Amino acid sequence: MAAQLHALWPGPARRYLEPFVGGGSMLPGRPCAAAVAGDLQAELVALWEAIRDRPDGVADHYARCWHDRAARGAVVYDEVRARFNADRDGLDLLVLTRWCVNGLVRFNRQGAFNNSLHHTRPGIHPDRLTAVLGAWSRAVADVTFVAGDYRATLADAGPGDVVFLDPPYRHTRGRYQAEGFDPDGLFATLDRLSSRGVPWILTWDGRAGDRTYPGGVPTELFAGRLALTTGHSPFPRLMKTSLDPVAESVFTSFAL
Ligand SMILES: C[S@@+](CC[C@H](N)C(=O)[O-])C[C@H]1O[C@@H](n2cnc3c(N)ncnc32)[C@H](O)[C@@H]1O
Fold first, then answer.
1. Number of structural domains found in the chain
2. Burial 159-181 (b: 16+ CB within 10 A, else e)
3. Among 36, 171, 179, 255, whose Cα sits 20 to 30 Å from the Cα of 42?
4. Same structural domain for residues 122 and 88?
5. Residue 201: partners with Cβ closer than 8 Å, 6 or more residues away
6. If you average pLDDT over residues 25-47, what whole number do you get?
7. Is the domain of 195 the same as that of 166?
8. Ligand 1: distance of its center to the CA of 16 in Å?
9. Ligand 1 pocket at CB < 6 A
């Protein structure tokens, strides 16, 4: 979807702001090099900074864990997870996300990572990951990463900036973080961006099969809206039931 979404920007940009950066799939195709990317998950932001500044160190850490697991087995996953939950090191978060069941990032109410090991998969080979990390390091060389709430990341947004927002869906309470996500704060932020003349694109509610996830974005807040078909939901696929086509709703501050 990234290319389709970036094709929507109404004009050139001097700075790209992305306050819910997550796995960063929008970053490589962003409309200008200068960028600020934020996330509430501080360990994820630390991982992004490490990938940008010392990809070889990240690759070495992963390779050590991978070879340790090859030698000693599943217990290594438990050790990495316990260490992450104690020390909150972003490099261990990378290992967990590569090895956990279906790559699903889950935290319990206490904020501890609680997904378990995907026993039947060895995890990406270190040689392959080293190449991937090198490519990402180059792609995010000009990105400033910040840990914090999206409102702080957007505090100084002004003319020349463009903003892409991919917040947690309303129905994903607890999937990324223990507390839910307050949509009213998001709506107020969108309104403020528009009043400062900052173009924004929001992906939020959507449709999977016959289930709809209405985000309820107030109609006066956006000027453009479209539905992008994004493929198939991983959740029924995991349950080995039908393949549900997924459409993502896209809202824009400008007319399309
Ligand atoms: C739907 S994901 C973003 C996925 C991203 N587009 C990608 O390519 O991977 C939402 C992200 O928002 C973060 N998040 C949740 N609440 C937040 C908040 N209040 N402020 C900033 N980030 C938040 C989560 O940690 C998660 O990484």
1. 2
2. eebbbbbbbbbeeeeeebeeeeb
3. 171
4. yes
5. 5, 8, 9, 162, 163, 164, 165, 250, 251, 252, 253
6. 97
7. yes
8. 16
9. 19-20, 22-26, 38-41, 149-150, 166-168, 176-177, 181
37 three-state secondary structure: strand
* Cα-to-centroid distance, 165 and ligand 1 (Å): 9
Token pair, residue 138, equals 């180059």
Among the candidates 102, 137, 172, a domain finishes at 137
Please choose from 40, 187, 213 the residue to mutate so as to test ligand 1's pocket, defined by most ligand atoms within 8 A of CB.
40
| Least confident window among 44-58, 71-85, 215-229 | 215-229
95 shares its domain with 156: no
Among 112, 137, 162, the domain-final residue is 137
- CA nearest neighbour of 54 among 83, 62, 27, 99: 62
Residues 96 and 220 in one domain: no
Give the count of beta carbons closer than 10 Å to the beta carbon of residue 30.
25
With respect to residue 142, please indicate whether it lies within any of the assigned structural domains. Answer: no
% of the chain exceeding 90 in pLDDT:
78
Residues 130 and 207 in one domain: no
Q: What is the 3-state secondary structure (H, E, C) of 179-190?
A: CCCCHHHHHHHH
pTM of the model as a whole: 0.90
Residue 89 lies in a domain: yes
Q: Are residues 52 and 132 in the same domain?
A: yes
Task: Give me the CATH number covering residue 132.
Answer: 1.10.1020.10
In this predicted structure, what is the pLDDT of residue 176? 47
Outline where the chain has alpha helix (H): 2-6, 42-53, 55-72, 75-87, 90-99, 126-139, 150-153, 183-195, 234-238
- Find the domain containing 64 and state its range: 48-137
Q: What are phi and psi of 107, to 5 degrees?
A: -125, 145
